[in-house]
Each structure stands twice: as C-alpha cells, then as structure tokens.
Amino acid sequence: MPSDPLQPPRSPDELLARLRSLFPELSAQFQGGARYLLDHPQDIPVLSMRKLAGNAGVQPATLVRLSQFLGFDGWQSLRELFVDVLRAGPQPYAKRARKVVRETESGRMLAEMLEAQHQNLDRIANANAQSLPRAAELIAAAPSLHIAGFRACFPIAFTFHYVYRLFRSSVHLVRGEAGTLEMELRALAPEDAVFVASFAPYSQESIRVATLARASGCTVIALTDSTVSPIALEADCTLLFSVESPSFFPSVSAGVATVEALVEQLLAKQGKGAIRALELAEGQLHQAGAYAPAGGR
C-alpha cells in the first residue's frame, strides 16, 4: 500500500473508483470492508457503521482505519460524501428556470450552453474509455438487445434503437406506452442484453426495467450519471454521461453522443455482415419511398 497520505476523495464516484484501483493492494481485512462498500454503496448513508461492518464481516474499527487510509479523518467524513448527495438531490426544474430568467443575459446563453456541451463530451471520453468496448462486447454477444429510456432519456434510447437496427434485426425498443411496460418486459429472456438510460431524478420505469432484467438473467448495461445510481447498481457494465447545463433542464446531448459512439464500435465489431445488412436496409428504405429524391421533386 502507498506510504504517502492520500487526499480524501471529493465525491462518491471518486471514492468508489479509488477503492477499485487500490483493492489488490489492500489487506484482507480492508478488502472485506472495501468489497461491501463497492457492492452496496446505497447502504452507506442509511446504515450505521456497526451494521455495515457486520454485513461486511469485519470489525467496525476496520471501517474507521479504511476511511483514514483513504484520506479521511474517520468513518463519518467518508459517510458524509454519500449523505450530502442524498441531501442535495436534483434541483427542481422550476427553481433552475427562475435562476436562468433572473441571472442570464441573452448574449451569453449560447456561449455558456456550447461550453457546457463541450465539457460534457470531454467527460464521456474520459469516463468510458474502458467501459465502452466492454459494453459493445456484451451487446454483440447477446441473442437480442432491449433498449429502454423514458421521459428525457427517450431520445437517447430511440437514437440507439433506430441506428443500430439498420444493421441488426434483433434490437427492440421498450416503450411502455399505455401502461404496457410489464407486458413488454415479458419478452426478456436469459442471456439477452438490456440497455437502460436514466439520470437523476431516476424514473421508476427505468429502475423496474433494470431490476427485472437482472432477475430474468439478462446482461444489463446502464447509461447513467453516477456509478451509484439505481440502474448502475443492477448493471454488469456502466457507461457514464454528464447532464450539466446552464439551462433549466438537464442536457442529454452527451448521452446521445455516447450511444452514437457505441453503435460505431458495434458496426466495426460486426464487420462485413453489418455492411451487407446496412446496404440492404438502405435499399429497402429508398424503394419504399422513405426519402425525398435528390435534388427536389
């Protein structure tokens, strides 16, 4: 283990990432505590240290020493990272809208929005360098893929479904229209892959899809804003995207960019078979009159 003192992580995601990276170097006792924290981060803000230690099969003092090793002055400081996230929660849209109306000058709006989108795209590149190829492997290996995204995440799910289905037929969009979500989820079969997109505040539908997919023996891929989101906790592979925006509503642009990058990897993985399927789909669309003739009428 490193001898130099560590600076304490500044967020739950940073803490969990540090635990994963240091895990092989930890003592057996520390590994016992770290394993439980990694597998059950949702318990950290709501259970006592004694209860957590009992669940992990270690002594409470082990969690104190593990916290100090990670750079905190004790367990309570580590726990506060997760408590603060719960306490803050997502800011109501109306409150954000009032701030936009009150503080934003029209001349700065476009520049601020473009800067936020640029930063969001930078974040997905850094966060998904390893997980994006893994997601492509899991999806390509599955007999069928079911894609779900509700409310603001529906554009992400629809884009993924529309583009990927151009060269793969066993791709299905979960819509949940007219209260039919549970009926649609009856189609989930063991070894299928289920892709779910959601960000805080997380939709109940997305959580139901991820939970039922896990129970059905499916491989779950989550596209979300945190490694401790409800759908990430059910996932075999998690892709992260940021929804930061100077406007009143979170931005899904980085989520759309992530699935576009994922489709690119899936196309490359499928190779010549994907090209043939894509040529066939394009030909059928033109023959069916889906597109206006080039050059006008």
Automatic annotation (TrEMBL):
The keyword DNA-binding applies. PROSITE patterns: HTH_RPIR (PS51071), SIS (PS51464). Keywords: DNA-binding, Glycolysis, Transcription, Transcription regulation. InterPro entries: Homeodomain-like_sf (IPR009057), HTH_RpiR (IPR000281), RpiR-like (IPR047640), RpiR-like_SIS (IPR035472), SIS_dom (IPR001347), SIS_dom_sf (IPR046348), WH-like_DNA-bd_sf (IPR036388). The keyword Acyltransferase does not apply. Gene3D superfamilies: Glucose-6-phosphate isomerase like protein, domain 1, Winged helix-like DNA-binding domain superfamily/Winged helix DNA-binding domain. Residues 135-272 form the SIS domain. Transmembrane segments: none annotated. Pfam families: HTH_6, SIS. One of its GO terms (molecular function) is DNA binding. Residues 13-89 form the HTH rpiR-type domain. This is DNA-binding protein.
